[in-house]
Design brief:
The complex is a heterodimer. Helix content of chain A is about 45%, strand content about 25%. In chain A, the strands form two sheets. Chain A has a five-stranded mixed β-sheet with strand order 1-2-4-6-7, sandwiched between helices. In chain A, strands 3-5 form a two-stranded parallel ribbon. In chain A, β6, α3 and β7 form a beta-alpha-beta unit. In chain B, α4 runs parallel beside α5. Chain B is of the alpha+beta class. In chain B, β10 and β11 form a beta hairpin. In chain B, the strands form four sheets. Chain B has a six-stranded mixed β-sheet with strand order 1-3-2-4-5-6, with helices on both faces. Helices cover about 35% and strands about 25% of the residues of chain B. Chain B starts with 6 loop residues before the first strand and ends with a strand. Classes of the chains: A alpha/beta, B alpha+beta. Chains A and B meet through α1 and α2 of A and loops of B.
Chain lengths: ~110, ~575
């Protein structure tokens, strides 16, 4: 597992890598999928250290959303940088993801 | 001597307790005994046969070599001291020629001197056994030999398999590379030529794939007499899978398919589908919505695309576009000011029931519309700095005084300089549409445009040439210029009818004309044979020496450009009158 994960009771805080791009998208997607399959279906995707997301990276966020919804879970995003937020807004994904700036609030939302 | 003269001893049929299974496990279990003493030879034959080997015997080295040349021998047990040829000489000779095979050689010696053993090994012997020896000692030596031969055979076989696999893989990889190159060429050919379907509009583009084939693609085509459809797509990722999706989407949007950009039937309700679009044109948000339904990935969304699809009225400059996860299109005006348009939107193929909206925009005369992929704004310099939207906008604004192709060429140069020798991480592509300025025209003059369809038969040439010249006259062109247009058009059309469409008289030649009082531009399109095999940039100049037509055309025109794309010949003639 390359992703840093931290359990907060039923909520899993998943820190995504600094570059979420084509080169690591499949691996990241797979790791998150395994988490969901293992029953961790309440996820906070921590984007704090993410500097760049390309189109493949963006698909990781959306496939996570689809996977947790299929398992009756929920996912929220935490602290995207300005660049990443711009991409999220350009693709209107802020309409399907709740975005938090405060870690505690994000975890609390899913608890 | 023939091999039949060699003495054969067949293996014993009865099973002795000490018969080594190793020898029988091999398809070849023949041992060659080389021994000048008949007594010793017979003794060895008896022992080896008992061990289950097939045994051949030779009385001397020459006989042995002859047998080795014709028989597949597993092991050789040779006496050291023999007349004519010693065991060492035999060894040396059989190792010098691969025609003797690669048997395991055991030299039988009465000597035990180290120097002799070294000489024997040098000559290529594998093992030694000293006289006198008992049969058990010989058995284990032979078994060791069999094991080594088995190992060597296994290694050889593996090597052969590896070599074959490598050869196959190399060939496969060469084929894939070849296919990829062909696919890349096809992809480039599918991109539209920079020839606007409307004389009021100018189109230009930039395309630089990151891999051989790209996930980016774009196109523009006429929907009716005044509307241009245009789109720019960026499929997530890049490489083969992205390129294939990109290709499929392009097919869906292609005017030949006509499926989703134009209504199939007239709607019962005559109200326009979108506020300012006529009812037969499907509004951009509906086109994008139907693509979203068609390309939706229900589970993962490894492949989706972002796009801008729009429709522009070539006469009025009124446009509508739908932006789906794609960067905001830019419009630059004649002062170099840049504005962003579009309302953002969901990518296509990502979310079920995503709703899309269109944005209305106005492209003023002389203004330029740019659609591009994030491959440009994200393009990294050596130290990882992205090119950014700001740089793109500045570059496009600063090159306002250059021609549209000139402006794009300068952007291309800047991007190449920006990423340097590093391979591109993402495809770079841009589509630009300029609404031509008709402001600075002398009072009283007029711009005349027309699209003329002509059947590719010689009898229709004079009338068509006359009609085109008449259009020039109505735009205020003087008599000499009109005469030149008439002659040039007659020559050009004659060439197309004779050279490009000889086999199909029913072919239609489409002629797009645009005349000012001091400038004219004519583009002909036909689906006949390409003119010839010369590279398009050399054509038709390379033919100026032959015939009477081309010298006249080249002499009277400022520029003559020929392109052949997707089975369509485009010939563009331009002239500005002094």
């Amino acid at each position: 597992m390359n992703l840093k994960c931290q359990a907060h009771n039923s909520v899993e805080l998943v820190s995504l890598p600094p570059r979420l791009v084509m080169a690591n998208a499949a691996e990241t997607r797979g790791e998150i999928k395994s988490l969901v399959e293992a029953g961790r279906t309440r996820l906070v995707l921590d984007l704090q250290s993410v500097e760049f997301v390309d189109s493949s990276g963006l698909s990781v966020l959306v496939s996570t959303l689809k996977a947790v919804h299929a398992a009756n879970g929920e996912v929220v995003l935490l602290s995207p940088s300005d660049g990443v937020r711009m991409l999220i807004e350009l693709t209107r994904l802020h309409q399907v993801f709740e975005i938090f700036e405060d870690r505690r609030a994000a975890i609390q939302r899913l608890s | 001597m023939s091999q039949s003269e060699a003495q054969r001893v067949e293996p014993a049929q009865s099973s002795h307790g000490n018969t080594p299974p190793d020898s029988l496990a091999l398809p070849n279990n023949t041992v060659l005994i080389v021994e000048d003493s008949k007594v010793e030879q017979v003794r060895l034959e008896a022992i080896l046969t008992k061990f289950g080997y097939r045994v051949l015997s030779a009385d001397n080295g020459n006989q042995a070599l002859d047998i080795l040349r014709h028989e597949d021998i597993l092991l050789v047990v040779s006496d050291w001291r023999m007349p004519e040829m010693t065991g060492i000489d035999l060894c040396r000779q059989l190792r010098s020629d691969p025609g003797f095979g690669h048997p395991y050689v055991i030299l039988v010696t009465g000597l035990n001197a180290k120097a002799d053993l070294v000489a024997g090994m040098d000559a290529g012997a594998d093992d030694f056994i000293s006289k006198p020896f008992n049969s058990e000692e010989l058995r284990v030596r032979l078994q060791a030999g069999v094991r080594i031969v088995q190992l060597r055979n296994a290694v050889e076989q593996q090597y052969m398999q590896l070599a074959q696999t490598l050869k196959r893989e190399t060939e496969t990889s060469r084929m894939i590379r070849k296919d990829l190159d062909a696919a890349a060429m096809m992809q480039r050919e599918l991109l539209p030529a920079s020839i606007s379907p409307f004389p009021q509009l100018e189109v230009s583009s930039l395309f630089q794939p990151a891999a051989t084939v790209a996930g980016d693609s774009f196109n523009f085509f006429r929907l009716d007499d005044e509307h241009l459809a245009f789109y720019h797509i960026d499929v997530s990722g890049h490489g083969i899978a992205s390129a294939m999706l990109s290709f499929t989407v392009s097919r869906f949007l292609s005017p030949e398919m006509g499926a989703i950009t134009l209504s199939r039937s007239k709607p019962a309700n005559p109200v326009a589908v979108s506020q300012h679009l006529p009812s037969h044109i499907v509004s951009p948000e509906k086109v994008v919505s139907s693509l979203n339904e068609r390309f939706l990935e229900k589970e993962d969304c490894t492949h989706y695309f972002t796009m801008v699809y729009g429709v522009l009225n070539a006469n009025t400059g009124a446009g509508h576009l739908c932006q789906a996860g794609h960067p905001h299109p830019l419009i630059t005006d004649s002062t170099g000011k840049v504005r962003q348009i579009g309302k953002s939107g969901f990518p296509v193929g990502m979310l079920e029931n995503a709703s899309y909206e269109s944005t209305a925009f106005q492209l003023g005369q002389g203004e330029r519309l740019f659609l591009y992929s994030d491959g440009i704004t994200d393009c990294s310099s050596e130290d990882g700095t992205p090119f950014t939207l700001q740089r793109l906008a500045t570059q496009l604004g600063d090159s306002k005084d250059r021609s549209l192709p000139g402006s794009i060429a300068s952007l291309d140069g800047q991007l190449k300089h920006w990423h340097g020798d590093f391979p591109l991480e993402d495809d770079i592509s841009l589509l630009a549409i300029k609404r031509l300025e008709i402001a600075g025209i002398k009072p009283g003059s007029d711009i005349k445009t027309d699209v003329i369809s002509m059947t590719a038969v010689a009898t229709d040439i004079p009338g068509t040439a006359e009609r085109i010249a008449g259009l020039g006259a109505s735009a205020g062109m003087d008599d000499l210029a009109c005469f030149q247009v008439k002659v040039v058009m007659a020559e050009v059309l004659n060439n197309i009818v004779n050279h490009a469409s000889p086999a199909s008289n029913a072919e239609t030649i489409e002629i797009h004309c645009r005349f000012d009082y001091d400038h004219f531009e004519v583009t002909t399109r036909d689906h006949g044979k390409p003119f010839d095999n010369q590279p398009t940039h050399e054509f038709p100049h390379a033919r100026a020496e032959s015939g009477r037509g081309w010298p006249i055309i080249l002499n009277w025109m400022d520029s003559v450009e020929y392109q052949s794309h997707s089975g369509c010949n485009h010939l563009t003639l331009k002239k500005t009158l002094s």
